[in-house]
Q: What sequence folds into this?
């Protein structure tokens, strides 16, 4: 009899989005005329910027001519894209990252999910709580945890982010090897200062740990004193891997392009204690299991770095940040504690009641769909996440309705 990978059975079935969909459709059946406003999803709503689209089209046209046609591209991605990335995202911010330390891919979800493959089966993992579920589930699948008991997997170290610590995850109090961090955070919208990130970088350097830093929402940072890359912290280029994506800054959720940065200085030990460059392992993994992001998409991504592209993607995050500020303002007026919304498209609200109860209340009394915090971990209990991915009119109406309902 062929056997399955039993670890998959440990996964707490992700009822979250199914459960939300079920409650929403029940509501719609009962209230066929109600206009629902969805502030629950983590997907963008605005179309691709003009200059991106133009480059995308031009890339497609090149594929139509024999002399300009492209087949398989370079495995790490085209140099025209990697070069503008290091110049704009790193060198301009004082981070000494080189183009050959960038790996272009089709998504930060895949990369942040696949990265664990290159580490040993018995590395100790720390994740924030609440957490982007990808970091947890991929390690469960790989067999690095025990069963899920009381909403937590045995064997994982959970770094709590709560109202008490300003939603900045606690430092690990037991030894860990891999630490997942995400700033601006999904789901909380919280951002880390340089001093806060330095604590983790120092921890990693002292304990020979590696930080997996997800910066998918970096384009929403408006406070210039905040770090946009973990490599702005001294010494991070020896202990951190960074994930970036064009999904949230340029609307590529349906177009697909991202990159992972692995400085050659990041090393980990083999079973005999020899230090090995992690870069080489990921390079091998990437070229074995991935055949590149399509040429027109890489052209489209590169257009984000032209002066027009930069202005357009800035305007795009401004569009969502205007919504986020309004949500934050209204929630604060109502007297709820919250975080996010200033350098992030998410607002994490302390509803001080069961998070599904809060979800039902907003749905049934205000016709607004949010995401219940409990779906992101134990520390999400009591909270809901509102997303700024919608238009201003809808967000404004949603907040008026919420004010009336509560
Ligand atoms: C949206 C998101 C990403 C981006 O994923 P893609 O696969 O690049 O679309 C990565 N990390 C987090 C936390 C996200 O919310």
A:
């Amino acid at each position: 009899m062929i056997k399955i990978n039993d670890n998959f059975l440990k996964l707490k079935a992700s009822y979250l989005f199914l459960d939300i969909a079920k409650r929403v459709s029940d509501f719609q059946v009962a209230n066929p005329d109600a206009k629902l406003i969805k502030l629950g999803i983590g997907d963008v709503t605005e179309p691709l910027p003009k200059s991106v689209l133009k480059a995308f089209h031009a890339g497609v046209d090149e594929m139509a001519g024999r002399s300009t046609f492209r087949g398989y591209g370079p495995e790490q991605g085209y140099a025209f894209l990697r070069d503008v990335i290091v110049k704009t995202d790193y060198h301009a911010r004082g981070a000494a990252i080189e183009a050959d330390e960038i790996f272009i891919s089709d998504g930060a979800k895949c990369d942040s999910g696949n990265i664990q493959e290159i580490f040993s089966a018995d590395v100790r993992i720390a994740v924030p709580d609440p957490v982007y579920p990808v970091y947890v589930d991929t390690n469960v699948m790989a067999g690095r945890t025990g069963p899920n008991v009381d909403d937590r997997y045995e064997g994982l170290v959970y770094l709590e982010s709560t109202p008490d610590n300003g939603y900045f995850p606690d430092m690990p109090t037991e030894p860990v090897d891999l630490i997942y961090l995400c700033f601006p955070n999904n789901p909380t919208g919280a951002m880390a200062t340089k001093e806060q990130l330095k604590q983790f970088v120092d921890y990693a350097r002292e304990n020979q740990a590696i930080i997996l830093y997800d910066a998918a929402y970096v384009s929403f940072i408006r406070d210039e004193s905040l770090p946009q890359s973990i490599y702005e912290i001294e010494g991070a280029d020896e202990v951190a891997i960074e994930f970036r994506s064009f999904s949230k800054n340029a609307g590529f959720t349906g177009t697909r392009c991202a990159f992972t940065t692995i400085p050659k200085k990041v090393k980990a030990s083999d079973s005999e204690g020899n230090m090995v460059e992690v870069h080489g392992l990921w390079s091998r993994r990437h070229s074995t299991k991935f055949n590149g992001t399509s040429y027109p998409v890489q052209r489209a991504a590169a257009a984000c770095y032209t002066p027009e592209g930069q202005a357009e993607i800035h305007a795009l995050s401004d569009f969502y940040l205007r919504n986020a500020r309004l949500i934050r303002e209204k929630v604060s007026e109502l007297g709820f504690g919250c975080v996010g919304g200033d350098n992030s498209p998410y607002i994490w609200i302390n509803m001080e009641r069961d998070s599904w109860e809060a979800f039902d209340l907003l749905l049934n009394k205000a016709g607004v769909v949010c995401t219940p915090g409990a779906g992101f971990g134990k520390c999400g209990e009591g909270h809901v996440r509102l997303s700024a991915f919608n238009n201003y009119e809808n967000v404004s109406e949603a907040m008026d309705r919420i004010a009336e309902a509560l």
User: Anything to note?
Assistant: The chain has two domains: 6-47+310-405, 53-307. Residues 27 and 33 are 10 Å apart (CA to CA).
